[in-house]
Design goal:
By secondary structure, this protein is an alpha/beta fold. The protein has 9 helices and 8 strands. Helix 3 runs parallel beside helix 4.
Length: about 325
């Protein structure tokens, strides 16, 4: 990783440790949830070469958006089990293109008054006025993804300076540097939906053969309430429930999620979307993995010990 990428990953690790430290009952299986990503929109103003949207036949723009009402339902579900983690408005589109975005943030903040709420953005639509509106609604951080190059940094810094936002409340992510040696966290092949060897996004002929911690520690809720097994499942290959029909907690601990996790514990990524995904999956989320493995053992669902792994190269 570059210095900028390493700095950002250290930032993420410190956030994860803060969540672990805040958990009151580490035997509670719901303590495994450390990040909930929420897809706010199916629109994007860009067609990047590393994104499935580069081909509208594969991933077209759709005028579909998360409502403030549904955002409030998700947050209420999380609050019901004293959720300590972060809510990230990211997913598969450009969040600020949802015209209700400030209302969405406000609805979540109402139920989660102390949690970190952040958003990823390509930054193209950011203005000082919009930045202030998002923070006034309750946002904690903005992560601006720099896809074009380092020349974007001063442009973003000016916007945040004019908005009066301190440097502690925004991060600039260096996405232009490519995917090699970054564990698929800055650029990845979106579970096989986009490949470009020149960008370090290879075709995965054989599945990776070690565990992945994503479905143990990170949840993905789509714009319509569908819960996916992973935020990298751009093709929606594995939908495990919908928060309009069941509580988030019931979906997270459902038999469907357990069966998926049991395979991943053993390093079996043969099912979609994991079979064609190039994300390493072991750089973070170890606490969630440990927590759920111990829970499944206590409940008699598994007998074998599955030792957590140190990050390894895919």
């Amino acid at each position: 990783m570059s210095t900028a990428q390493t700095d950002f990953m250290n930032h993420r690790k410190s956030q994860e440790q803060a969540v672990i430290d805040a958990v009151n009952d580490k035997t509670n299986p719901l303590a495994s949830v450390m990040t909930v990503e929420v897809n706010t929109t199916e629109l994007c103003n860009r067609t990047c070469v590393f994104c499935p949207r580069i081909d509208p036949e594969i991933y077209p723009n759709r005028n579909l958006h998360l409502s403030a009402e549904l955002a409030g339902k998700i947050a209420s579900d999380l609050a019901s089990f004293d959720y300590k983690g972060r809510v990230s408005f990211s997913g598969f589109g450009e969040p600020v293109l949802n015209k209700q975005f400030p209302a969405v943030i406000r609805a979540v903040r109402e139920h989660l008054p102390t949690n970190q709420l952040d958003t990823n953005t390509n930054g193209d639509k950011l203005t000082p006025e919009l930045v202030n509106a998002l923070f006034d609604a309750g946002l904690t951080y903005i992560y601006a993804n720099m896809y074009d190059g380092p020349e974007q940094r001063p442009l973003y810094e000016v916007i945040f300076e004019k908005a009066g936002i301190s440097k502690e409340r925004f991060k600039l992510r260096p996405h232009w540097e490519g995917a090699e040696e970054d564990y698929g966290l800055f650029l990845n092949n979106r579970s096989g939906m986009v490949t470009d060897p020149d960008l370090g996004l290879p075709v995965i002929a054989e599945p990776i053969t070690h565990p992945c911690y994503y479905p143990f520690s990170r949840a993905m809720v789509d714009w319509n309430g569908d819960v996916l097994i992973c935020s990298n499942d751009w093709g929606r290959a594995a939908v495990v429930g919908n928060v309009m029909n069941a509580s988030f907690a019931d979906i997270w601990l459902s038999p469907a999620m357990m069966e998926i996790r049991k395979k991943l514990m053993a390093g079996d990524r043969s099912d979609k979307p994991c079979a064609t995904c190039n994300v390493n999956g072991t750089l973070s989320g170890r606490f969630g993995f440990d927590t759920l493995v111990e829970y499944y053992k206590r409940e008699g669902h598994i007998k074998k010990d599955y030792a957590p792994m140190e990050p390894v190269e895919a």
